[in-house]
Design brief:
alpha/beta, seven-stranded mixed sheet
């Protein structure tokens, strides 16, 4: 049952019906989380399909029965993945998120579904140190592209849970050039036009663009810099959060040195939090991280939501068939990719 388990279709459907029977405003979550919940609720069969495929990929890499598994939903958001795992019978389910309001949302959703999860941990990857037992599997959707220092993340993950299989999805697919073009437009918006932090502001009002925010920080902490120097350092510090921005400014004041170009040409992050705008890493970066910290890695293409009987839905069905039959080529048209970090060599 360990490496051939398929999730029972009736359990999937029961979960979908349970969630679709909830009303977002009755769960006791923030306005942002209600909007996010409503989106997941609308497309829940698609997302349940993703959750199921991730768990099945994990199951073929562990010898445990599903009822004995311990799994963490990392960067859980409103906790839909964690709730699904518990609903279908995963033995122990922990959830993590860096945002306190998301942890409250995870608890509220679990309560609304009459589920008892096994632990809630707020913080970054270091929060896994609070789990005083081995964890079999880490599952994470649309998180890894926001982590400021992926190398430090993978290093700490391996130190804290050396035998854990970790599986991530990310829509920042470097193979899909159309997707890359779309995300670069979003990065340009956040860097120079406006940035919206929906988790910190329920009204989703526009915030200061990151270039301007770095300039504000330099003016506040380095009042001796001229306007031209502030603009210059801001342009050379794209992709740095404020601690690293300050190191760059200190170096400049010490000897006038600045890098020839910014650390990032297209990617950008919030200088206050280090949260990347859908960071696109070169396709070899994940393999480098895996090799460096003793993981085997497998990169698989994700599928489109093709549930609608429309011309667009038919095209997505055709794309999905191609992706399934030719996965290596399918990565170049896939809407997202799946990154599987296995602590043992994976020849499956």
């Amino acid at each position: 049952m360990g490496n051939s388990f398929k999730i029972d279709a009736s359990r999937k459907q029961a979960f979908i019906l349970s969630v679709q029977g909830l009303r977002a405003e009755q769960i006791g979550i923030t306005q942002y989380e209600r909007a996010y919940f409503s989106h997941l609720q609308l497309y829940l069969p698609y997302y349940v399909g993703i959750y199921s495929s991730l768990l099945e990929q994990a199951l073929v890499r562990t010898k445990e029965n599903i009822h004995n598994l311990s799994v963490i939903d990392y960067g859980a958001g409103n906790g839909m993945l964690g709730a699904y795992l518990k609903f279908i019978g995963v033995g122990q389910v922990f959830v993590n998120d860096i945002n306190e309001s998301c942890i409250r949302g995870c608890k509220a959703l679990a309560s609304a579904l009459n589920l008892e999860l096994d632990g809630y941990f707020q913080g970054d990857i270091a929060s896994l140190s609070q789990i005083n037992q081995p964890v079999d599997i880490l599952l994470s959707t649309d998180v890894i592209e926001h982590i400021y220092n992926p190398e430090q993340f993978v290093k700490e993950m391996k130190l804290l849970q050396p035998f854990m299989v970790a599986i991530f999805t990310t829509a920042s697919n470097p193979f899909n050039k159309i997707k890359v073009h779309q995300l670069r437009k979003l990065q340009h918006r956040d860097e120079f036009l406006n940035s919206a932090d929906v988790l910190s502001n329920a009204e989703n009002s526009y915030r200061t663009p990151y270039f301007e925010r770095r300039s504000e920080l330099l003016v506040e902490y380095y009042p001796t810099l001229s306007r031209e120097e502030v603009k210059l350092i801001s342009s050379k510090s794209r992709g740095l959060m404020k601690e690293d921005l300050f190191k760059l400014a200190d170096s400049y004041l010490l000897d006038g040195s600045l890098p020839e170009r910014a650390p990032e040409k297209y990617n950008t992050c919030d200088p206050d939090t280090g949260n990347w705008t859908e960071r696109i890493l070169p396709d070899g970066s994940f393999k480098h991280l895996a090799d460096k910290f003793g993981y085997a890695i497998k990169i698989l293409p994700g599928l489109y939501n093709s549930n609608r009987e429309t011309p667009a839905g038919w095209l997505k069905k055709i794309a999905n068939r191609f992706i399934l039959h030719f996965p290596e080529l399918g990565k170049y048209i896939a809407p997202y990719i799946v990154l599987i970090f296995s602590p043992e060599r994976d020849n499956k």
